[in-house]
Amino acid sequence: MSTALPPRPRHVSQSQSEICIVASNYNQEFTDALVENACNELKEINPNANITIARVPGAFEIPVASAALLAQDNKPSVLITLGLIIRGKTQHGDLVAESVTNSLQKLACETKIPVIHEVLLVDDEKQAYARCIGSQLNRGREAARSAHTMLELFSDLGLHQGNKKKSTRSYPSNA
């Protein structure tokens, strides 16, 4: 596990990116902080981005809401998922976290749209505070920085919608 926030990107993006955040309402004190920190960081590093926020009841609902958003005609350039699961005395939290993780990874690979996964599984409220509200490990800001990095990468590779890079590779004919 990383112990510090990755550095902020060196340059501010001027792109008109569509960024969607899907966030859980459960453990709202912490998830609200994740959303606020992610939005504030996005506004700093990509001030022209259009940010849409969709709130769902809990972490388990994040993948289906994400899939619905990525199935729309007007797809976001990147999707950020934010949630918090506090481990209890049963394995329920671990099962939800594993299901969410697998679903989000599959969704990203199928749609070829970056999905930033910050649905956190923590042991207690102290860990939740450090990752959601604190400044050193703040996963909301980290999610925004990851989203920016993926937007830049996909732009460089010509993978954004409406920005199809013409292939310079030629294929031999079998005729």
Can you walk through the features of this model?
The chain has 175 residues and is α/β, with parallel strands linked by helices. The protein has a single domain, classed as Rossmann fold (3-Layer(aba) Sandwich). Helices cover 42% and strands 18% of the residues. The protein contains five helices and four strands, in the order βαβαβαβαα. Strands 2-1-3-4 form a four-stranded parallel beta sheet, sandwiched between helices. α3 links the parallel β3 (78-86) and β4 (115-122). α2 runs parallel beside α3 (92-111). The chain is globular. Residues 162-175 have low confidence and may be disordered.
Quick structural gist:
This protein is an alpha/beta fold and 175 residues long. The protein contains five helices and four strands.
| Rough outline | globular
Low confidence ranges: 162-175
Number of helices: 5
Structural class: alpha/beta
Order of helices and strands: EHEHEHEHH
Q: What top-tier CATH class fits best?
A: Alpha Beta
How would a crystallographer describe the biggest sheet? 4 strands, parallel
How far apart, in Å, are the first and last alpha carbons? 54 Å
CATH topology: Rossmann fold
Radius of gyration: 17 Å
Number of domains: 1
Helix content estimate: 40-55%
Which range does the strand content fall in?
Answer: 15-25%
**Mean of pLDDT:** 87
Main-sheet strand order equals: 2-1-3-4
Family: Belongs to the DMRL synthase family.
Binding site for (2S)-2-hydroxy-3-oxobutyl phosphate: 89-90, 131
Protein name: 6,7-dimethyl-8-ribityllumazine synthase
Pathway: Cofactor biosynthesis; riboflavin biosynthesis; riboflavin from 2-hydroxy-3-oxobutyl phosphate and 5-amino-6-(D-ribitylamino)uracil: step 1/2
